[in-house]
Amino acid sequence: MTLDAVSEYLTGLQARIVAALEQLDGGTFRRDAWTRPEGGGGISRLIEDGALFERGGVNYSRVQGASLPPSATAARPQLGGLAYEAMGVSLVLHPRNPYCPTVHMNVRCFAAGDLWWFGGGMDLTPYYGFEEDARHFHGACKAALAPFGAERYPRYKKWCDEYFFLKHRNEPRGIGGIFFDDLSEPDFESCFALMRAVGDRFINAYAPIVERRRALAYGEREREFQAYRRGRYVEFNLVYDRGTLFGLQSGGRTEAILMSLPPCVKWRYDWKPAPGTPEARLYSDFLVPRNWADGG
Amino acid sequence: MTLDAVSEYLTGLQARIVAALEQLDGGTFRRDAWTRPEGGGGISRLIEDGALFERGGVNYSRVQGASLPPSATAARPQLGGLAYEAMGVSLVLHPRNPYCPTVHMNVRCFAAGDLWWFGGGMDLTPYYGFEEDARHFHGACKAALAPFGAERYPRYKKWCDEYFFLKHRNEPRGIGGIFFDDLSEPDFESCFALMRAVGDRFINAYAPIVERRRALAYGEREREFQAYRRGRYVEFNLVYDRGTLFGLQSGGRTEAILMSLPPCVKWRYDWKPAPGTPEARLYSDFLVPRNWADGG
């Protein structure tokens, strides 16, 4: 295995994604490079108040640590405490237009002791659902994984549904996508190739959706619902998300990690959408498990 | 020990506090009673869009469970897994006027196996600091604890500073107050009396502060800073707060628990107040450990 090859891929991926997003938005992503006293560092690329993106970040980091936090591996907690190296690209984009969904993508590689493993995935969080968009996003996820066996997509789709789930709300975060972790079979090159397939597919999975929805007119009602639903995003990321907790626990750069949080969020006691509204349809038709890649 | 006496005190305390807050606000707190399939339930009293309080809740709950979550006790993790009973009053109030501070108070009693213990405290989170207010609040905390020994206030004040601390920001949540947990010495009656002293003092500690500040004029600048700082409140409550995590882990009522979250919150990348502004003074003069009860 060559971790340098992985980090080279990751920095290239970050640059390609940012370039594509800048073209979509018309604005420029700020660039903040940082180092970490314990070892390593990263490059944060961020946008706020863009024409398309109200707030978003595409982070690259490669860090070394003396003691792996437990949040870093789901399947092998016994590795907690070992010296480790971790690298990845992680992005969250919050468009201003409530008809454009929020998106998250992450690809990562860990090494601890003699072991290494890959993880990653991408998932979509719409405020107003469109079946065409859900089918497109999941179709792209399925296509990315197809070269690695037909069983990958359904397995990683299910994993995503289970992972991005707010237990205290009994509610999925969004319409899912794919998620995988602890990937180390059959060999380093195959796993690295799978991670690249996911990273390389991101723009194709997301850009057509925002291009279709960005010109839709919206008003205060849609912005209010977006702000309310963004609260769920905050709850998930701060209570459950292992990537966020790993970052905070491992002394990552707080401002870069918390770029995943939306720009403006509202909480409202026991609020529920009126039956028959587009807001109610998000819950009834989209925040439920569906086989989007097979037509939904 | 008689847990019924504690719950009777707690329901009375909730009623007294809500009555005082309704008088302050001029509006009415909504009342939601709930039960829990695993045993017990609670009464939530809530306000949104009040004249004074933009959002706030005063919750009472008494619940029984088959297995104590680890978040319930700091000092005795070995009790995790035991059957338990827990009761408490917990409140958070978010005034609309940024010159009025957010406040939190909690008093609670746990029993598991043959053991019981009390916990609680109150703490203040200003957006714009006033030394007079900080001295008043800490003075009230000190006065509440004075009958239980002169060493209590400094000990519980320090505990509060340590507990309400955002490690990932290296920043206290606010100006503190008092916090205690696992209190079971010297005997049940004394501990219960201490808990009552804290609960009974709350209105006296908080009401004079909002009465002094509620008429101060503010504009968009102050509201923006308030929304930004409220983000820290969310980060603390969802990442660190054991009360919140206990509620979510023990199958409490999510909407009641998350009444602690502010109504409207903003995140902004790497934002810092300009030197010399009132916003900068919050950080330099208030979000630092000070002996407020002894004149600051």
Explain this structure:
Two copies of one chain form a homodimer. Chain A is of the alpha+beta class and 296 residues long. In chain A, 40% of the residues lie in helices and 26% in strands. The first copy, chain A, has a seven-stranded antiparallel beta sheet. A two-stranded antiparallel ribbon of chain A has the order 7-8. In chain A, a hairpin with a 4-residue loop joins strand 7 and strand 8. The longest helix of chain A has 26 residues, at 188-213. At the A-B interface, helix 5, helix 7 and strand 10 of A face helix 5, helix 7 and strand 10 of B. Strand 10 (264-266) of chain A pairs antiparallel with strand 10 (264-266) of chain B, so a sheet runs across the interface.
Apparent shape of chain A: globular
This entry's quaternary arrangement is homodimer
Q: What is the gyration radius of chain A calculated from CA atoms?
A: 18 Å
What is the CA–CA distance across the termini of chain A? 39 Å
List segments of chain A where confidence is low: pLDDT < 50 over at least 5 consecutive residues.
Answer: none
For the largest sheet of chain A, list the strands in their spatial order: 1-2-3-4-5-6-9
- What number is the mean pLDDT of chain A? 95
SS-derived structural category of chain A: alpha+beta
Query: How much β-strand is present in the residues of chain A?
Result: 25-35%
Helix content of chain A: 25-40%
